[in-house]
Design goal:
Number of helices: 10
Mean pLDDT: 92
Radius of gyration: 19 Å
Helix content: 40-55%
Strand content: 15-25%
CATH architecture of the largest domain: 3-Layer(aba) Sandwich
CATH class of the largest domain: Alpha Beta
Low-confidence stretches: 1-6
Structural class: alpha/beta
CATH topology of the largest domain: Rossmann fold
Number of domains: 2
Number of strands: 7
CATH superfamily of the largest domain: Vaccinia Virus protein VP39
Amino acid sequence: MSPTSPQSSTLTPRLLDLLRPLQLLTISLLHLPGTLLRNPTLIFSPRTLQLAWFSSVWHTLGPRMALSPDQTPYIAGLFSRARGVVLELGPGGGDQMRHLVEVVRTGQVQRVVGAEPNAALHARLRRNAQAVGLEDGASYVVLEAGAEPASLIPALHGAGLLADEGGGGVFDTIICVKAMCSAPQDQLPQICATLQTLLKPGGEFLFFEHVANDTDWFTMAYVWVLGWIWPVTMGNCHLDGTVDAVVERIAGWESVDVRNTREFEGWNVMRYVVGVCRK
């Protein structure tokens, strides 16, 4: 085969794409011994261990992945649409916070609520929020909550952000960047329907997520194999997420625009999509 043939030029990036999840798994596993050495008693609490372990991993991977040149233009574009009162789901340590600098400076965004279930990431999240001009407790509120209604709604209510636990339209923008993959996938319909009710009329649900690749049988089989260990090592992340399909099935949106990123080649392990759903 010629080195410059189309088959050869496709093979190398495909191999690199297959190896990338293994690299991330390796980084994650290397953080496990240190997590246990710092607190050996965590071995008796699997859930607490997983949170501490992923916090350690994300301190390494979060900033690095937030600088991805293939992803940054899409993510920055979503944050530039944010306005008013914003709910960000799964902000982690706030590694994407830099995209809020301009909209905060101009007053396009007045307040942000960060719903992050991993409390070990909250200190860094608050520091990054302060760095872009969001004052902790005033213009930036941190909630220890996931996207699931059973977690999110009581947390919003407890922070005085909802009139009652039934929810209501209180946010102008809800944004989620590479976090919905960690939500319980069987709860996605309920999650997305709840997010819709939390938006004010005309509000937008904006997301940049990796979802299942359903176009290539080999990649689908590879993801199925990885799926046996991936969620445990990567903070309950799922490589076969379906948020794109779920939001398109939910009635009540004025408009839904979900698109593959232009880098999608049909065989990627992670198929990234950008979504803009207007209520």
